[in-house]
Specification:
alpha/beta, 12 strands, TMPPE metallophosphoesterase, 438 residues, transmembrane helix, membrane
Length: 438
């Protein structure tokens, strides 16, 4: 029987990741009631950071072997430039690993340079792992097809060296492109959506949809103020924020949130939780802070949006808690559609705010009379190659979907980004939704 010491280091990292994951499940199930709220909050976030790092360790070992160890037997291995290269790769990996801990220790009104650098390295790390894996797979396929003849093995060393060089070059190019794309202001996307049973007096009602702003280590007050200015310029009747507003505790990041107080939509500004609100474990304080800015959280509840032209014309705007609250066993929270739609009958139009597209799917299975669901969460994949995973894991990925004859789902690609200040294959968006009466 093989002992733990005899296992390869990648296997040890996998075991460590499993141990951390088990401890997360254990603390959620058995320690939730025994620990005070603040301790539980810090424990959860620390466990998540450790879990991510133990998983990344396997990839980091592969990066080091591909970009450093591969060249140790070459003539350049003893050169000063190679020593600098080894230091650069080590620092790159160290920064990528440290990014998750900035959520715990480096959150302020504006992002720290260290946090921006660390998360940029994390984004580049994801891209580099993808290309190393892809090029490695192509190399193995070539060897299989070419056979093991002398002719095929002649240029083997050159191909082995070419793989990491090409992967690094592609990573650098895409990282720069991603950084430039994410640094641009969100695009304003105007969408017209017919809403069954919307009163004719409310035709052309304008709703501005925000999602996934992720105030925290890499998004601060300056970017939020820019978003608020853009929203105000659109002059919406209603503004809705469908989750993942922040990755930090309300008290810590309060100064960065102040621009939200300038939102002045005449029919109100509304908010529902996303999964990251529950990762911070500070939902109650966030609700109080948002209320102080005249933003109403919809905590499995609804409001009547009444037409300014006629009090008899209205539709039901409802919001549900994010489904992650159930997974985390967050007391007093969890998706409760029946409670959220209490009093919302099919005689009036129903618009639902639900952060995750999977929640939108579940809601329609239970209440197919919902006319419009506004979601976020996917970020449109945010960066390549994560786009494919986000597409496969969500029933609705990004943009407008029609479900049945009288129901639509719109999924925002996000108004900012999560952590990594990059976007590849997606664009940040402020959505201007024009509701049309049939």
């Amino acid at each position: 029987m093989i002992s733990f010491k005899q296992l390869p280091i990648e296997a040890k990292a996998a075991v460590a990741a499993g141990v951390v994951f088990f401890s997360m499940m254990l603390s959620r199930s058995y320690l939730a009631e025994k620990l005070d709220f603040r301790t539980r909050r810090w424990l959860l976030r620390l466990q998540m950071a450790l879990f991510a790092n133990t998983l990344m360790l396997m990839g980091s070992l592969h990066v080091w072997r591909s970009t450093v160890t591969t060249f140790t037997r070459s003539s350049a291995a003893s050169s000063f430039c190679f020593m600098l290269w080894k230091i650069a790769v080590f620092m790159f990996l160290a920064l990528a690993h440290s990014s998750f801990f900035t959520l715990l220790f480096l959150v302020a009104e504006e992002p720290y340079f260290f946090s921006l650098t660390a998360y940029t390295c994390l984004g580049a790390y994801i891209i580099l792992i993808f290309f190393l894996f892809t090029l490695g797979s192509v190399e193995q396929a070539y060897k299989f097809l070419a056979g093991r003849g002398a002719k095929a093995s002649t240029g083997n060393k050159n191909r082995t060296a070419l793989k990491p060089v090409l992967a690094v070059l592609l990573t650098v190019v895409l990282t720069v492109v991603g950084l430039l794309n994410a640094s641009q202001p969100p695009t304003v996307n105007s969408v017209e959506i017919p809403v069954h049973k919307l009163p004719s007096a409310m035709n052309n009602l304008k709703v501005v949809l925000l999602s996934d702003i992720h105030l925290g280590p890499t998004v601060g007050k300056t970017k939020l103020a820019m978003i608020v200015r853009m929203v105000k310029a659109l002059k919406p009747d209603i503004t809705v924020i469908v989750g993942d507003l922040s990755d930090a505790e309300a008290k810590i990041i309060r100064p960065a949130v102040e621009p939200l107080g300038e939102l002045d939509s005449p029919l109100g500004t509304y908010f529902v939780t996303g999964n990251h609100e529950y990762y911070t474990s500070d939902v109650s304080n966030w609700f109080e802070l948002l209320k102080s800015f005249n933003i109403q959280p919809l905590h499995n509840e609804n409001v009547k949006i009444v037409s300014p032209k006629s009090t008899s014309d209205w539709f039901c705007l409802a919001g549900v808690d994010d489904i992650e609250a159930d997974v985390l066993r967050y007391s007093g929270h969890g998706m409760d559609l029946k409670k959220a739609l209490r009093g919302c009958s099919s005689e009036h139009a129903i618009v639902l705010l639900a952060h995750q597209p999977i929640a939108a799917k579940w809601a329609l299975q239970e209440r197919p009379d919902i006319n419009l669901i506004l979601s976020g969460h996917t970020h449109g994949g945010q960066i390549f190659p994560l786009n494919a995973g986000a597409y496969l894991l969500n029933p609705f990925f990004v943009g407008l979907y029609q479900v049945g004859q009288n129901t639509f789902v719109y999924v925002s690609p996000g108004t900012m980004y999560y952590g990594i200040p990059m976007r590849l294959g997606s664009r940040a968006e402020i959505t201007e939704i024009i509701l049309r009466s049939p």
